[in-house]
């Protein structure tokens, strides 16, 4: 079985609400966020474009970082991985850090949810 995320605009009964606000792409930039309990994603107009990002003030910048896929990762139950205290801090290429790579751990919540919906079924994730 393959898994596809089908993101559609709907007028009623959304699973998630995405709110995009027009904002200047200049410091101080507002930060995107996900409120999991209310199923809301708050983005800004510049969040759908690639830009430079940094781990912390004074550290090297990363080019072509996309905020929207990172925030979508939060809707799948993933935490940030870019703080020293985060378990996967060293994986700089992870989409939940400042990279663009999807890891099997990023699908853990989905895997567990499918297994709950299909009792007795063993679900594994394989990224290709």
Give me the secondary-structure topology.
Layout (H helix, E strand, L loop, with lengths): L16 E5 L11 E3 L4 E5 L6 E4 L6 E5 L1 H9 L32 H10 L11
Parallel strand pairs: 1-3
Antiparallel strand pairs: 2-3, 4-5
Q: What is the number of beta strands?
A: 5
Estimated structural class: alpha+beta
H-E order: EEEEEHH
CA radius of gyration: 16 Å
Adjacency order of strands in the biggest sheet = 1-3-2
Helix content: 10-25%
Instruction: Show unreliable segments.
Output: none
Q: Overall pLDDT, averaged? A: 86
Give the overall silhouette.
globular
Report how far the terminal alpha carbons are from each other: 14 Å
What does it look like?
- The chain is α+β, with helices and mostly antiparallel strands and about 130 residues long.
- Helices cover about 15% and strands about 15% of the residues.
- It has a three-stranded mixed sheet, with helices on one face. Strands 4-5 form a two-stranded antiparallel ribbon.
- Strand 4 (about 50-55) and strand 5 form a beta hairpin.
- The mean pLDDT is about 85.
Name its key features.
128 residues, three-stranded mixed beta sheet, 2 helices, 5 strands
Question: What is the compact description of this entry?
Answer:
The chain is of the alpha+beta class.
């Amino acid at each position: 079985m393959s898994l596809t995320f089908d993101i559609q605009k709907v007028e009623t009964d959304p699973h998630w609400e995405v709110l995009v606000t027009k904002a200047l792409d200049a410091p101080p930039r507002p930060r995107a966020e996900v409120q999991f309990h209310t199923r809301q994603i708050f983005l800004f107009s510049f969040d759908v474009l690639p830009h430079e990002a940094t781990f912390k003030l004074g550290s090297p910048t990363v080019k072509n970082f996309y905020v929207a896929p990172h925030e979508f990762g939060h809707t799948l139950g993933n935490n940030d991985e870019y703080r020293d205290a985060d378990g996967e801090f060293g994986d700089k290429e992870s989409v939940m850090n400042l990279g663009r790579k999807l890891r099997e751990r990023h699908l853990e919540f989905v895997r567990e949810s499918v297994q709950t919906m299909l009792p007795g079924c063993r679900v594994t994730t394989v990224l290709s």
